[in-house]
Amino acid sequence: MSKTLAQWLEYLETLHPVGIDMGLDRVSQVADRMGLRQCPIAKRVISVAGTNGKGSTLAMIDCVARAHGLQVGTYTSPHLLQYNERVQVNGRMVSDERLVAGFEAVEHARLAAPAISLTYFEAGTLCALWCLVQQPLDMVVLEVGLGGRLDAVNIVDADVAIVTTIALDHAGYLGTDIAQIGREKAGIFRARRPAVLGSRELPDSVAVAAEALQAPVYQLGRHFEQSPEPAAGWHWQGRTVNGEPLSLDALPDLGLPIDNAATALQALTLADLSLTATATRTALATLVVPGRMQWQGQWCLDVGHNPHAAHYLARHLPPVAAGATQWGLIGMLDDKDADGVIAALSSRISDWVCVSLDGERGRDAHELAERIAAQGGRVHHCAATPCAGRDWLTGRLGPEDRVLATGSFFTVAALLAQPQA
Prior knowledge:
This protein is an alpha/beta fold. The chain has 15 helices and 17 strands.
């Protein structure tokens, strides 16, 4: 009897001795056995790497491309509520049945002599590519994981490659050398194909890597730009592959990083999409990215889990009314820079609820509380789970109070999975 999707996901956890094993040899061999690299997976492929902003940039590319009539597939990770979120076609999650068929194809190729061991993520990436290649797609947008150059997604040659931001994260795997991290992320660039740099502040190593490949560089602040408009919204100015200027006016403020939106538009232009103002405005006005500055009543949910993301949140949280309190509910994994995140948010948040996260990487709420207290913050409660922390805080909120729930995908996912009664 065929496994269910849940059974497949459980089985994949047992395939490899470690959860993260960066390198392309094993996954490339299985991909070749599956025929995934014999032809392009779509007419145009865009890959997105970076420390922060990958998910929102991918979502913006997807929605704008579909608003222009393109058939679009996406692969992203991790998911919040359902594994199916990782693989979508035209904005719809693929079915359990399609994913099961994909995992069966991966397993058949993996076990062909000699058998090859794959990590959970590698098997999932191959399954996603198998699902996408079955569809007649105009564009595929791929989120590259933490590894960049050695990430499983990088077995695909993208027509346009994006690096959003570079900051410290996953230090256990990537180290703390920003220049080296930049070189690893830039490993998604391809010779003589456009490289889009979605930040004004990137280590020189990113541009150097592109130049070594003779990849045309398009950097925010130099080759394309976004700027606020006097009345409302924002203005985008970019360039075509031939260097001709383009601009779009009166674009809606979507409550997400505008730099990421500008980067998405530049990448789409380089992928041969002729942007129209009407379709672009419509797409951006309706876009919601779950877990990214997502408001539910008095609560803002954001998966930010490193200091770079926390600084953005601190700058862009709307002010609370006079006499009201801006609360923070935080739960983090043990391998994240909790001190840096707390310090970044301390300019906006003094009153906290700490929550524990389960699993071998989970961090205890009381440890977070000690770190907050050491920086002068006030911890009012420690809870065993994110939902328990939310329930405790909800009954104590004033009508004008606001809450930022942050620190991890796991924190936000728990709150989304069990909506408040």
